[in-house]
Amino acid sequence: MILSRITRAIREQNWFAVGLEFVIVIAGVVFGFQVTEWNTGRQDRREEAAVLSAMLEDTSHSIEVAASVAVLIGDQLAALERLTLVSDQPPEQDLPDGFQIDLHTGVFVFSLYNPQMLTFDDLRQSGRLALIRSRDIRRRLQEIDAIHAGIAETRADIVSVYYEFSDPYLIEHFDLRQTTFLPSAHSGNPGLEWLSPDENLRDLRAVARQREFQNILLYRGFIITGYRGQIERVIDHYAGLETALRERLATLGERA
Q1: 241, 52 Cβ separation under 8 angstroms
Q2: What backbone torsions phi and psi does residue 184 show, to the nearest 5 degrees?
Q3: Distance between CA 253 and CA 53 in Å, rounded?
Q4: What residues contact residue 137 under an 8 Å CB cut-off, 6+ apart?
Q5: DSSP secondary-structure letter at 203?
Q6: pTM score, whole prediction
Q7: 140 near 240, Cβ under 8 Å?
Q8: Which three-class secondary structure state does DSSP give residue 184?
Q9: What CA–CA distance (Å, rounded) separates 173 from 198?
Q10: Which of 9, 49, 111, 197 can pair with 14 through a Cys bridge, CB separation 3.0 to 4.6 Å?
C-alpha cells in the first residue's frame, strides 16, 4: 500500500509526498528493529534472573552446609586438644572420663565437605556463562571455584593421612570396640548393636602417651586447622556472592 502511494506520488511529481512516505518506511523499519531488540533484551534479562535465582539458592544452601561442617571441625579440634593434653601425662596416670569419646571425635571422625555450585557448573559446562552479565558476579564465581579446588586438594590429603598413615597405627594399638563400632546418638553412628564394649580390653594408658600417638594428634590438628580455614574463607566468599546476587536481581527487577 505504501509502495503504491510512493509510485503515484512519483508520477504526480509530488516530491514532498515521496519524501514523507520514505520517512514513514524508514521509521517503521527502525521501530521494528527497536521492538525486536527490546524483546530480545527482555528475554535475556528473564533468563539471567532465572539463572541468578537458582544460583542464589545454591549459595544459601552452600553457606548452611559449610557452616555446619565448620562446627563439626571445631568439635574435632577441641577433642584433639584434650587428647594431646592426655598424651603429655605420665604413662601410669588413669585416662580421664570421655577419653574414648574424644578419641572417636578427634581421630576417627572425618567431617567431609564436598562443595558444589550446581547452577554455576551447569552454565560452565554448557558454555552459557555469558548469561551472567555482571562482571562482579563472574569474578566472585571464579574466586570461589579456585577455593573449591584448594578444598578438594586438602580433603584428598586428609583422606590419605587417615587411611595410609594414622588408621593402621590406631587399628593396631587401640580398642575400636569402645568407640567406632558402638551406637552413638551424638554422631548418629548406628554402630554394631551386638558388640559388647567391655570385653577383652587392653590397658590404653601407656599407648595414649606414646610419641607416635601424639604425633598423629598434632599432624591431624595441623592439617584440619588449615582445612577449617579454607571452609571459613569460602563461607565469606559465599556471603559476598549472595549479596551480589541479590543486588543484581534487584537491578533486574526481581525479588530475591
Answers
A1: no
A2: -140, 115
A3: 12
A4: 52, 241, 244, 245, 248
A5: P
A6: 0.76
A7: yes
A8: strand
A9: 16
A10: 9
